[in-house]
Amino acid sequence: MRDYSRVGKNSSLPADRERRILDRLSRDGQVNSTVLAEEFSTSEDTIRRDLRELAARGLCQRVYGGAVVTSTASTPIAVRVGESNNRKEALGRTLGTLLRPKQFVYIDAGSTNLAFARMLSHDLPLTVATHDPAIAACVMGKTAIKLLLIGGSVNREVGAALGGRAMREVAGMRPDLLVLGLCSIHANEGLGAFDAEDAEMKSALIATAGSVAVAVLNEKLDSVAAHKVSEIDSISDVVVEADAPPSATTALSEKGLRLHKAAPATH
Fold first, then answer.
1. With contact defined as beta carbons under 8 Å apart, do 93 and 262 qualify?
2. Where is the HTH deoR-type domain (predicted)?
């Protein structure tokens, strides 16, 4: 969860109210304007102004009725591929249990999906498509897998081909399984991404896939990102970490998603 310990020095909010709002965001992942107004004995308009200020400082994302945590997963792919690798590998191994021989699997861009691609068996016959060059390079050496690489201009922040050419190439594909990469997931606010073209590509991939699975680090749960990809019901399977917060996993289960817990990450 985001560290709020050093915020507040340049805020126009009363310090105690700001601290308590941020404490609740850190603890619960979201706040409700009506509840906060009652607790602080102030108006909902005042709370909405508070939340607007906090959102402008990147400390939360405003949603209908309140605010939620902003996903921290906004760093460039070159940085993310070196972070939390043991955790991502644990997620990737569990994702692999969803595969079946001879499936057509589309692997979306992302560092967790790259870890998943590394875990793919050399002996499992699949057709794999991706617009992520790093994932393609990883899959290339697995001789039982037929690889389809989507072309186009590569966005260095995302680490994948995006834009018109890539969108046209995926439009005619009908994968059995889409392994979707995400920046954020929230039971009520849906799926999110930080880049507009990346969000557009993810939406296009979801529209043609037979089923959609995601693997999610804890810090992406119960958060939102700048661009909405789709509603939560567009995915069928979610792989979470062994110590994923029960409040987040329960909310996803209640939406009808199949949850799969990864084994504890090795250190």
1. yes
2. 14-69
**List of the chain residues with pLDDT < 50:** 1, 4-10, 78-82
This prediction's pTM: 0.77
Collect all residues with Cβ–Cβ distance below 8 Å to 33 and sequence separation of at least 6: 44, 47, 48, 51, 65, 66
* 93/115 Cα distance (integer angstroms): 9
Phi, psi for 121 (deg, rounded to 5): -70, 145
| pLDDT at site 24 | 83
Q: Identify the structural domains of the chain with CATH numbers, from first to last.
A: 15-70 (1.10.10.10), 77-261 (3.40.50.1360)
Structure tokens at 126: 């699949």
